[in-house]
Design goal:
It contains 13 helices and 8 strands. With 298 residues, the protein is α/β, with parallel strands linked by helices. The protein has 2 domains: 141 residues, Cyclin A, domain 1 (Orthogonal Bundle), CATH 1.10.472; 99 residues, Collagenase (Catalytic Domain), CATH 3.40.390. The strands form 3 sheets. The chain has a 4-stranded mixed sheet with strand order 1-2-6-5. A two-stranded antiparallel ribbon has the order 3-4.
Amino acid sequence: MGFVITLLIVIIIAYIIFEVHMGSPILFVLDCIDIYRFKHHKEFKYTYLNQCVPSLTPEEENVLKQKFAYYNSLSHDKQLIFGYRIKRFLEDKSFIGMEELEVVKEMQLLIAATAVKLTFGLRYYTYDCFHTFRIYPSQFYSRLVNSYMYGGASISGVMSLAWDNFLHGFETTVDNINLGFHEFAHALIISQQNDVTIPSFKLYTADYDFEVEYAKRVMANDDFFREYAFTNDMEFFAVAVEHFFENPVTLREKLPNLYLCLAKMLLQDPAGNTPMSRYRTSINGKMWVLRPQDENTL
């Protein structure tokens, strides 16, 4: 009897802690399951989704197959999830063509697909803080910053994109530059600042912040990260995400801990077969860092 009472007390305390610090405790538990699944390379089966989620139309699916290579790499079950998330993402978003640009369905699909790919390991993928997407034909002038820009994500919930540059990001995948990934990386951080709780971000942000300082020192005289990454922490994260998806193997080789932090935050491993227990993680708020030169000590 005493054990049962103690267990109930522990559950109640845990519930209160989760409610205060993480939002919904139920969602937190689900996210913990996702984190465990990712770290231990466990896959969920989604075959039941054939009957219970709206699917993409044949025309929409053809756009993704022709224009968005990542979609073709997914299993049938994961394509169902991907398509469902695109539908959900598009439900409450407005797309406005600027400078007489006509917005067509393909533009909406590719923007949504980019957002979904970035968050495909997470339960949060709708970017609720963002409601309007302004699409420009090419580089545009922003009176807010008094400069020409290719893209921007505002705390007001508006994202601006230069369409030619957006497409270039997927047509050229070897330059570590992808406007879509860059701006949606900003959108994730802005979402966090607007009280959206992403548990994997909350768990690993301290580790990430620690590793960024190391990466900045190491990469200061290396052209792997373009100079723009060192503008501020927001830009460094966005550029790191571009590398994470465009050149994951090289990022893992050069900065294994930074790669691992991003993998654990986004719950994705684009480099493939990364042993999640290979690198030391934070203990009591401090980072036990494994550098490339330390690998022979394992």
